[in-house]
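Researcher: Here's my situation. A collaborator sent me these components and asked whether they could plausibly form a single complex. I don't have experimental data yet, so a predicted model of the whole assembly would be a useful starting point for our discussion.
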Amino acid sequence: MSALLDTSALGKRYRRTWALRDCTLTIPEPSIVGIAGPNGAGKSTLLGLAVGLLEPTEGAVTVCGRDPRRDPAALADIGYVAQGAPLYRGFTVGEMLDFARISNPRWDQPLATELLARSSSATQVSALSPGERAHLALALALGKRPALLLLDEPFARLDPLASRELLRLLMEGAAEIGSAVVVATRVLTDIERVCERVVLLGHGHVGLDGTVEELLASHRLLTGARRPLGRIRGVEEIVRERSSGRQLTLLVRTNGPVADPTWSVEQIGLEELLLAYMAPEELPSPQPPEPSRLRWHG
Amino acid sequence: MAWLTWRQHRPQLLATAGLLLLLAVAAVVTELPIRAAYHRHALSSCLPPATRSGCELIVGHFRSEYAARVGMTRYLAVLPALAGLFIGAPLLAREFESGTFRLAWTQSLSRRRWVLSRTLLLALATVVAAALVSALTMWWRRPFDDVGGRIGPHAFDVEGLVVPAYAFFAFAVGVLAGMLLRRTIPAMSLAVGIFVAVRVGVETLLRPHYLAPLHRTADSVAQSARGRDWILENRLVDSVGRQIPTAREDLAIVHAQRARVDPQDYLLSLGWRRAIVFQPNDRFWTFQAIETGVFVLLGALAVMATVALVRRTSA
């Protein structure tokens, strides 16, 4: 069976700037994937390409093995909630459901009404709170019983309570229909709460991609006295370097246990980890090549 | 899709129906006295080829009595433009403005089907409404068309098949403008601009030449030769057919007045005649068919361009 979402060297250029470049990703089976990144990192572009709203400048994207732009049948497998959850403001909730029923042959009315059990179908869309709007938009996407659910900033503009409620609905719905979920968001706490895998985009490139466990296991915070930095055993790369007074804190990617007693080693939370990759406050200092005479191995 | 189209355009469709109703009431109320006068003066017996004495006077009196009212029907020519403004232009522009195209284009329907079904359903509603307006206008103008003809733009533009064709074209151009500009108000302006330009262009440049115009020489030299035909040219010519400059005509009239001769008799005695180039009234339906074809074709091209753009858009 082909992957639910597969992109290869995918790129999109708007006039002169690349919104997304060289993006290769595969979501082989149902899972919850968070796409993180600051504004303009290419998150919306990636989702827009996956749902066929955008035409790739280079590379290719397939959903369940089908090109969403060339093959309209692919659309039935994709649930998509655009940024800001656009809905017909003059419609009632019930009419929005009718719209979705007409527009989707595989529409699951009982599921959608169950998900919306708490709002009245006679309510005007324009009278809904941001939370209810997001809720309705999500129910419309889930009612398609998609194999792949794409959500673009679903939690933006929601208060924490509404955001938690939406997340609950998302988890319930996705579990019910067994679809893969891709959530593009700046709000990192959401990612930490639900995502099994995180893809970090920055300036249109994939900066980081892995399951949450992998990412947490491969990064450590090192704290120690300020010193000129050499090579530290077990450290693959210094992601962020931060000093306060005589103390130096490093966020590092490890390739083995850090067994240097002059550093105290700590675990790092996912949110802080992603933030460090998204906005490195200080660039890591270039590491000079070590003199060859000091090398006793390799 | 029919339900969705109706639901999304309910205000416009209801407004159209209301406008139709209003027009119908106004038409009936204003027409009744006209029909009464038509029968009272037995105008039908004055229609060609039958002629009876005093007809010219009776017809002239009838026409001048209702001239102001008849003039009003010219304003009906703006109605098709409204279809482009209020039904066509917002069709796609509003989806872009509110971002709902991202919702509509990510359901299971293909974009082609989405845009084509909505466009064709609304086009159908527009055409039906325009056909009703046209039928109503034809009924209303009937007495005047009988005596004054209907091939001239004053009647031709608001009667027959061309009215639905204009409305379809205006609507289609509105939809295309909405697709191109993605904002309702600018799309409305563009749609009206294109519609007026094409409509006036066709009327002044193409329509007079759908069929070769006929020529005749009037026996009189008076300018106001009233008939049922569409007069394209009406010039004073001398006996060998050369046009007489206005200055020379004025001079001749002054001469006649000084000599206390009737100027008309004097001009005729010089061998001068009026050469008239015209389209005869009986070509009405032929011209209607040709002009309808032109606008249906242009409208269809606009719809096809819109569908192609919607399918290809990357946004």
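Model: Some features of this prediction you could bring to your collaborator: The interface with chain A takes residues 1, 3-4, 7-8, 98-100, 102-112, 114, 312, 314-315 of chain B (CB under 8 Å). The longest strand of chain B covers residues 230-237.
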